Amino acid sequence: MTASAAPSPAGSERFGGEPPTGHATATPRRPRRRVLRVLGAVVLVLVLLTAAGVWFSPIGDRLRADAAAQPPVSGVEDVSIADSTFSPASLAVPVGTTVTWTWVDGEAHDVVFADGPRSDVQASGSWTRTFDAPGEYAFSCTLHLFMDGRVVVTAE
Questions:
Q1: What angle do CA 146, 86, 138 make, to 5 degrees?
Q2: What is the sign of the dihedral through the CA atoms of 69, 73, 74 and 80?
Q3: Is 119 inside a domain boundary?
Q4: CB–CB of 90/149 below 8 Å?
């Protein structure tokens, strides 16, 4: 003799009917993907606001000293990279001079010229460029947009 399963109450949720009286209905859960998208958007906005806050703050103003407005320093062939600045940021050299950029703060930077030459991104060491023609050569760090400078090459 086999026992048969008791029939389910009519209208039970299991069979697609109404839930039995007195039972709470489950609330639908938010899709996990949507929550992750919203969270990602919030994080992105916070990062952008933080970056803008530094860029447009008095600290950003101090860091963003315009190299073109500074008079070029003569007699210098070495530029140090420390504290997220080029020093000097503006220099004047005669044609044929080799200028050396030296990383001293241990932070990653690069030196990129508008006319093409560029160093590797590095945190230590040095990089050189020889200037064979007179003119004004602008350079910057692509990792820190407020870091810029120029080399004014004079005919001698």
A1: 70
A2: negative
A3: yes
A4: yes
Q: What is the pLDDT of residues 6-37, one digit of tens each?
A: 555 554 455 555 555 655 555 556 678 888 88
Q: Which domain holds residue 56?
A: 31-63
Per-residue pLDDT tens over the stretch 62-81: 444 566 578 999 999 999 99
**Structural domain count, the chain:** 2
Asked whether the beta carbons of 112 and 139 are under 8 A apart, the reply is yes
Confidence of residue 100 (pLDDT cuts 50, 70, 90): very high
Type of residue found at 20: P
Those residues whose C-beta lies under 8 Å from the C-beta of residue 128, and which sit 6 or more positions away, are 98, 99, 100, 101
103 close to 81: Cβ distance less than 8 angstroms:
yes
